[in-house]
Amino acid sequence: MTVKEYKQIAYGEWFDYVDPADAKRAHARNVQRCRAAIRKHEAKDRKLHILLVHGSGRSSFKSLAHEFSNSQFLLKSAVRQFEGDEKYEITEIRLRDYNISPCNCCYSTTSSLCGFPCNCFPLDPMQELYPLVLSCDVMFCSTGVNQSAMSSRLKLFADRLISLDGGFFVAPAQYREKDADWRDRCLALSTKLGKDLPYDPRTWGRVAAYFIASKDQNNELKTIAKPKASPLSYIESVAWSLWDGFSDYGFFHADPWYVGAAANPNEEMAFDKARYEKATEVKRQAAHVAAAAVALATEYRKHPPAFDGGARHNRT
Predict the structure, then answer these.
(1) At what angle do helices 126-135 and 20-42 cross, to 10 degrees?
(2) Facing residues of 259 across strands?
(3) Calpha distance 61→197 (Å, rounded)
(4) CA–CA distance, 237 with 258 (Å, rounded to integer)
(5) What is the dihedral of CA 78, 79, 80, 84, to 10 degrees?
(6) What are phi and psi of 91, to 5 degrees?
(7) Is 211:138 a contact under the CB 8 Å cutoff?
(8) Section 174-195 average pLDDT
(9) In whole angstroms, what is the distance from residue 46 CA to residue 255 CA?
(10) How many whole angstroms separate alpha carbon 81 and alpha carbon 288?
(11) How far is Cα 72 from Cα 286, in angstroms, rounded to an integer?
């Protein structure tokens, strides 16, 4: 691939370079995968599916750091208690290995313009991750703190999950380019249905928990304003942002529902792996968070929570 060809793919619209017939076939495949994942989740006699989502930019050895991230290390230690147990199926995703496209924010125009599975990017690697989310019972997300927020990779992943939460089903035969005519048809549909617009909460009843590492958590330098200007620490701010977003998607949370590994920002190698191996209290907390989430997910397998119509004031 030449530099010019790469720039066309990276900065142009994908549909300018992909045969519409290929895109339609890809969408049909995406529908098939998602339907299979939903059937798997609905099956009674199966293992509890635990999904690990690593959001760090260095969550694989492909990063320039050539090592796992601290947050990934934290999460992986928490799930050791389930490894080898026949009751559980564990799937691991390193978001750094997926070049996910940013959400086009179709929902901001009209909810009916948001399609399921996402028909903005039928060939995007997010299509490989939708079935994993649909089939899971509990999702664990790990992230560092970047600019007082979750990692950009995890945010992209979370944004794109909106397709699962109420996205209008687009059958393979219905697929076509989302041009101005498609937009106008969706707007007309929304106007016609009004308050009767359907809402399919495909991630409802799943459980989530978060594993967060921060270099600046204990930073007392005057140049760092966050600990002084907000009642929330860096880790707490990220945790509540995740709680808010995934609660909107229908995820539930046990108590406790997150754990943070704080580091001393005034030391280089702020929270290296050798030090983490000795951080027995942090690892104990991480294991406790994971166990609480799995226990809640196990309970919901037996007694699924009643759908609340889209509100979240009654959710854990």
Answers:
(1) 20
(2) 211
(3) 45
(4) 11
(5) 170
(6) -120, 140
(7) no
(8) 91
(9) 25
(10) 10
(11) 12
Q: Is the pLDDT of residue 259 over 90?
A: yes
Q: State the CB neighbour count (10 A cutoff) for residue 238.
A: 26
Ranges of beta strands (E only) in the chain are 48-54, 88-94, 115-116, 138-144, 168-169, 207-214, 258-262
Mean pLDDT score, 110-138? 95
pLDDT in tens, 209-248: 999 998 766 545 443 444 455 667 888 899 999 999 999 9
Fold of 3-302: Rossmann fold (3.40.50)
| Interatomic CA distance for residues 60 and 208, integer angstroms | 22
Check: CB of residue 238 under 8 Å from CB of residue 144: no
pLDDT tens-digit readout, 25-84: 999 999 999 999 999 999 989 999 999 999 998 877 777 777 778 899 899 999 999 999
Contact by Cβ (8 Å): 211, 142: yes
Residue 281 has what DSSP assignment? H
Q: How far is CA 23 from CA 14, 100, 103, 315, in A?
A: 10, 17, 18, 38
Q: Are 56 and 14 in contact (CB under 8 A)?
A: no
Confidence (pTM)? 0.90
- Extents of the domains making up the chain: 3-302
Torsion of CA 103, 104, 110, 114, to 10 degrees: -60
pLDDT of residue 312: 53
User: Cα(236)–Cα(258) distance, rounded to whole angstroms?
Assistant: 9
